[in-house]
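Hi V.,

Quick status before I head out on leave. The structure for the redesign project is tokenized and pasted below; the design run finished overnight.
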């Protein structure tokens, strides 16, 4: 049994290493490509012959990339706050209160996530214009919230329904209001789920392109995906690939840092409720 177990572990480790290599290769390739001139991008080599940070300096010097990063941070942060702020009371009502049509409402919320963005693009564009939010980052935050809210509500409802009712009943007997129960009892217990769903909402808002392209017109509200797409050249070979790669690495590092910082809570949020007893 011992050789078999060792062989199984070795196979599992090899498979995990292969998956990690495939997942990390595009980022590593982009990072290495950002350290060399664009002319060297089409030559086969494994390490830059003369590494340079010139592409990173050019990205911030030739366009308002710093302001684009600020816009993305504001939009993604506002999306997380709005999504969690609206999803938490909704999850309490759907997870703790029994009423007719509850499951139908839950499945309706889940069905909203199946609609492609382009299907509601024209209607949402008219709404953004009517609210006076066109070419403003709050308009992007509102549109992103509409798409991240259903998933957030569904995830938090699942976790809320699993919490012991004795905690809620004890707080209500002690004179707590429903808001007190949500804020003081449920929020600490739902921390892994809040971090997981909040991080997923942040990543979705950070990487979104279609709405950011449609609802913005200038660098005043433009986010990083659109800013990277607008880096242009006369042809594919003249495109400043090093700057494109430098921009990609720059906008990816914050997401990597967030995942590493909250990895324990993310794992707890993804695995909670998987094992009972």
């Amino acid at each position: 049994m011992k050789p078999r177990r060792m062989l199984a572990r070795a196979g599992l480790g090899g498979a995990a290493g292969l998956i990690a290599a495939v997942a990390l290769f595009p980022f590593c390739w982009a990072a290495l490509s950002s350290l060399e001139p664009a002319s060297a991008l089409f030559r086969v080599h494994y390490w830059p012959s003369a590494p340079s940070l010139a592409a990173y300096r050019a990205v911030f010097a030739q366009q308002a990339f710093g302001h684009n990063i600020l816009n993305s941070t504001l939009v993604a942060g506002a999306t997380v706050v709005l999504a969690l702020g609206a999803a938490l009371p909704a999850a309490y009502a759907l997870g703790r209160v029994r009423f007719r049509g509850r499951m139908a409402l839950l499945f309706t919320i889940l069905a909203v996530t199946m609609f492609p963005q382009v299907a509601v693009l024209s209607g949402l564009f008219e709404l953004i214009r009517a609210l006076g939010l066109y070419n403003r980052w709050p308009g992007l935050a509102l549109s992103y919230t509409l798409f991240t809210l259903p998933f957030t509500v569904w995830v938090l409802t699942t976790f809320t329904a699993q919490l012991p009712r004795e905690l809620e009943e004890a707080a209500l007997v002690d004179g707590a209001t429903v808001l007190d129960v949500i804020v003081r009892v449920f929020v600490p217990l739902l921390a892994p789920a809040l971090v997981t769903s909040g991080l997923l909402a942040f990543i979705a808002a950070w990487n979104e392109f279609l709405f950011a392209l449609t609802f913005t017109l200038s660098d005043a509200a433009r986010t990083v995906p659109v800013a990277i797409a607008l880096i242009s050249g006369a042809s594919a070979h003249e495109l400043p690939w090093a700057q494109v790669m430098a921009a990609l690495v720059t906008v990816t590092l914050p997401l990597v840092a967030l995942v590493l910082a909250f990895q324990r809570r993310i794992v707890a949020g993804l695995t909670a409720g998987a094992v009972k007893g």
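Above is the designed sequence. Residues 273-277 have pLDDT under 50 and may be disordered.

G. will cover questions while I'm gone.

Best,
W.
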